[in-house]
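Consortium newsletter contribution from the modelling node. Members have asked for a concrete example of what our holo predictions look like. Here is one, prepared for the LLP complex that several groups have been discussing at recent meetings.
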Amino acid sequence: MGRPSAPRPPATPDLKTGHDLMSVLPMTAQVKDGHLWIGGVDMVDLAAEAGTAVYVMDEATIRHQLSEYVKWTTYHWKDVDVVYAGKAFMSLAMLKIVADEGCCLDVSSGGELAFARRAGFPMDRIYVHGNNKTPVELTECLDAKVGRIVVDSFEEMDRLSALASERGINQKVLLRVTPGVEADTHDFIMTGAEDSKFGFGRNQGLAMAAVKRAIELPGLDFDGLHMHIGSQIFALNSFSKAIEVIVEFIAEIKAETGVGVGMLDTGGGLGIAYGIPDEPSTIKDYGKVVVDGIKAECEKHGLTVPRMAVEPGRSIVANAGVTLYTVGSIKEIPNIRTYVAVDGGMSDNIRTSLYDAHYEAMIANKADRPREMVATVAGKHCESGDIVVNDAPLQCPDVGDILCVCATGAYCQSMSSNYNKQVRPGVVFVVDGGWRWAVRRETYDDLMKCELG
Ligand code: LLP
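And here is the predicted structure:
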């Protein structure tokens, strides 16, 4: 699916307009009649009808990203599960799309599993994560007949074995292994990841001990290994390095126990463009590096190539989403900065204050004008750290303008809160020139629904 070609304005090397933000916006984004359009819907009209703040998700981009993963992983190997990491963004509408595209789902809590059940998601396509699944959650998983549980500790393994045996079930499990390779955006660092609350360290012998126990314990069907080396990764060689280490471990398992590994799940982590200079790797290249990498390493060690799984979250939904706000006040502090305050903030996007994340912003009703000033987009919460975008190039704002923050589809709604008793924005899906509420905006009654007085 190609990006619709928006007419380019005359070259303005220093002044970025909305047109220059196409690389961080959904693939259907266009600048038309001075407004930002997504999915064939005018964002200014949408804001007027739906109100702000509101999350907008472009269905075409989500479907495109999922299908790219399916295409470029199964291009290299017949058996690859594309497992959407639901923690990035989960709603019933989203889960229906994931199921519809033939993908699997990573859930990491009983709550996420409950969403999957309510959405009618096929349970055999569920991968269950979490470093401290409670006995209740494990029971829920067994009762729901989930496909695979990714075991993270010895205690969990024993608990699961007992629960599965009681029920006369043989539950498929993967073991989460910490390969000792920690990825960052630009390179990999060997060691850091060993100090992790997740998984069994390979270098300390814990991973091998875990494999042997999983093979022996009743109620467990040892299916293979899982790893996840990090998130927002740009350098694909981080994945290559980790694959080298984990396939070597598969060879050791074969040599020591005689048991073959049926599945290798390499986790998620592919980075996305938040800012104009960001140039993440493509899904096509990622598929080649990961899938061909596993095949090549298996060949090197004389191993049968296992079934594979990848678990993308951010790279499916981040660029599919934007948040629309209304500008409420503009404070120009001479010689210091200009604050543009919006009707949301750290309750709908904690990533800026939590990770110093970078975002691009634009005024949706002035999309074809140059972003000629730099302003800090602040939220409405009682904290000076409540910033949505630091030093954002922006069109000159006026009170009442619709401000769009780009690439907010991942880890914003899913990490949102009711701080200051702020109601959470709803989520609108746009597709083919129409829009619908996928999640309605909260009400004050919603805020009080658990209060017992
Ligand atoms: N699989 C596992 C086991 C994970 O823990 C994660 C993310 C993923 C897959 C998906 O990774 P992705 O493709 O989205 O990078 N809150 C942070 C991100 C935390 C990621 C946690 N695990 C943020 O806002 O940047």
